[in-house]
Amino acid sequence: MGDAVALRLVGGLAGGVADNVVAPWAEARIMIRLVTPVDEVSKMIEDWAEGRASLEWGPMVPPVKLGVVSGFETSVAAFATDIPALTNWGTPYLFGPGSIHVAHRDDEFVSEDELRAAIGAYQRIARASLE
Q1: For residue 32, how many other CB atoms are within 10 A of its CB?
Q2: Measured between alpha carbons, how far is 94 from 22 in angstroms, rounded to an integer?
Q3: Which residues contact 22 (CB under 8 A, 6 or more apart)?
Q4: Separation CA 103–CA 109 (nearest Å)
């Protein structure tokens, strides 16, 4: 697919009725973490699939530039966020106690110390957003 189009493709493959039978159907599911505008990537995939597959598009989440508050460590993470859906709330900040590596899982947890520290951090973010 050409130049730097996506950070990562993940998904699954399924199809067929038995290992020794030509599959009467197949399905591939992918998720693309974009570094290119959605329209450009959609067109490339549609051009590639033309006549060979039907496409069904799921949700498209545009990239968003997050606000930064001095004194907070920043990083780039390969995880999604609902922030693009909250566009009427001013400068977006992405912060929360705990680890993203266990977020939204059955074993998700946040330590009491992290919760206590988050109170002050949220206050600092709120004050910085008023400046």
Answers
A1: 19
A2: 48
A3: 16
A4: 8
Chain Cα centroid distance, residue 59: 11
- 3-class secondary-structure state, position 119: helix
19 with 45: CB under 8 angstroms? no
- Claim: this prediction has a pTM higher than 0.85: no
Query: What is the three-state SS of 1-47?
Result: CCCCCEEEEEEEEEECCCCCCCCCCEEEEEEEEECCCHHHHHHHHHH
In angstroms, the CA 23 to CA 77 distance is: 38
27 forms beta bridges with: 14
Rounded Cα distance, 80 and 35, in Å: 13
Instruction: Tell me the per-residue pLDDT of 31-40, one tens digit each, with 9 for 90 and over.
Output: 777 777 888 8
**β-strands 26-34, 6-15: how paired?**
antiparallel
